[in-house]
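Entry 12.
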Amino acid sequence: MDKLKIGIPRALNYYHYKDLWINFFKALDCDIIISPPTNKAIIKDGLKYANDEMCLSLKIYLGHVSYLKDRCDYILIPRIDNYGLSDQTCTNFLSLFDIVNNIFNVKILNYNIDYCHGENEISAFINMGKVLHKKRWDSIKAYQFASVKANKECKKKVLNSFHKLKSDQTKVLLIGHSYNLHDAYLGQSIIYLLESLGIEVIMSDGFDPKMTNKLASSLSPSLYFKYSKEAIGTIDIVRNNIDGIIFLTAFPCGPDSLVNELVFRKITLPYLNLVIDDIDSLTGIETRIESFVDIIEQKKQLIN
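Predicted 3D structure (tokens):
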């Protein structure tokens, strides 16, 4: 009997949960098909299905779903609402299932996360195993195995981030959602440019999210966007070891437009705000980054 093929779009929540998902499905003896890194063909395809009000990250996601639609038995599209009253997600994370279900004729494998109404992660994964005709105990063991693996990867990432903080290079904190920072089109080209200019890039998702979530209260005690808190909470950890901050946003992200403006008013470090839309060239952004690097390098020389 052929193994079930589970398609996973390499966009949005993939960058938060990939280690958990991949190891869970592997433990259940499923084949996994991950869409390729974002490219212009995927973006063009996503734009075809999207409407103008969707953020660029969501448009990209639809392109990844389109790539997978004829290549697997199920496409994983979770519905993630909240991890508690003070840990809400963007409405895109809640509406993904409905958006994809209305646009594409595909079999969707989904699970619900809504801690406010008693739908937690382990029960969600058990239900997902049930849809795949897996035994309850096998799903529980697969989830436990995947959680251990995901935690190990998180610890490795944290150790690497602290190692980078000790370097003598000029350091910039890149703040953004993981799905923008690690996307081949949105974030990676910016990271490569910074590194080519001799900058040590510290990623906002490179630290313990539970810790950064709590630290975000120093900037706003009433903020309730889970992933935004985890990103900006990093500032408290690194502020004495970095030379500047770059905020990376996909236009027109609602949470970022609110949260970033709040942070701008409360930090003293030099910062650059980059808002990326579906453009064909990053030349203008490259010029802004180069100018920003010149500024922080000159400031560093004056201090020394």
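Annotation: The two ends are 67 Å apart (CA to CA). DSSP finds 13 helices and ten strands in the chain.
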